[in-house]
């Protein structure tokens, strides 16, 4: 006689991870928006003129900051979920990939800012999102 052992699946661990990951999305989005608001007074740049100068006309507004941070963190969540499904070292792999993506993302703002203040502001926003999302999402990875 053969016995089949099936793993018991609980919904509590995935729910806890989902909640923590939603917190990571909210926290990174809020942190990016806070950095955007603070960039004006600290860097002496008008918020409306914080530009990604690909022609000098694209302004980085609050909606763009919120959407970019949320979408980026959600993409990180999706990658982490895929790595958890297909690899044993999901946390380590994800953290390395996320760090590399953050470094590559700094190229654009560092080279395309229309002014030094704008470039610094954009780099800071990228770093704030990375510094918030990477550890918060990594902490939720299954072991």
Q: Supply Rg.
A: 19 Å
Q: What order do the helices and strands follow? A: HHHHH
Q: Give the count of helical stretches.
A: 5
Query: What's the shape?
Result: elongated
Biggest sheet character: none
Low-pLDDT regions = 7-11
What's the mean pLDDT score? 83
Helix and strand composition category:
mainly alpha
Distance between the termini: 34 Å
Care to count the β-strands? Answer: 0
Share of residues in strands: under 5%
Helix share bin: over 70%
Q: Could you walk me through the main structural features you see in this protein, from its secondary elements to its overall organization?
A:
This protein is mainly α. Helix content is 72%, strand content 0%. It contains 5 helices and no strands. 28% of the residues are buried.
Question: What's the structural blueprint in terms of helices and strands?
Answer:
Elements: H1 12-43, H2 62-86, H3 90-105, H4 107-112, H5 116-139
What's a quick, concise take on this entry?
The chain has 143 residues and is mostly helical.
Which features characterize this protein?
mainly alpha; elongated; 5 helices; 143 residues
């Amino acid at each position: 006689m053969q016995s089949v052992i099936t793993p018991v699946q609980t919904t509590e661990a995935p729910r806890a991870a989902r909640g923590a990951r939603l917190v990571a999305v909210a926290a990174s989005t809020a942190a990016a928006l806070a950095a955007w608001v603070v960039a004006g007074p600290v860097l002496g740049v008008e918020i409306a003129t914080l530009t990604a100068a690909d022609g000098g006309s694209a302004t980085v507004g609050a909606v763009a900051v919120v959407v970019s941070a949320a979408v980026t963190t959600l993409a990180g969540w999706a990658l982490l979920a895929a790595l958890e499904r297909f690899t044993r070292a999901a946390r380590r792999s994800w953290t390395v990939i996320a760090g590399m993506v953050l470094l590559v993302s700094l190229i654009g703002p560092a080279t395309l800012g229309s002014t030094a203040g704008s470039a610094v502001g954009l780099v800071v926003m990228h770093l704030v999102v990375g510094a918030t999302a990477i550890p918060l999402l990594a902490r939720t990875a299954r072991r």
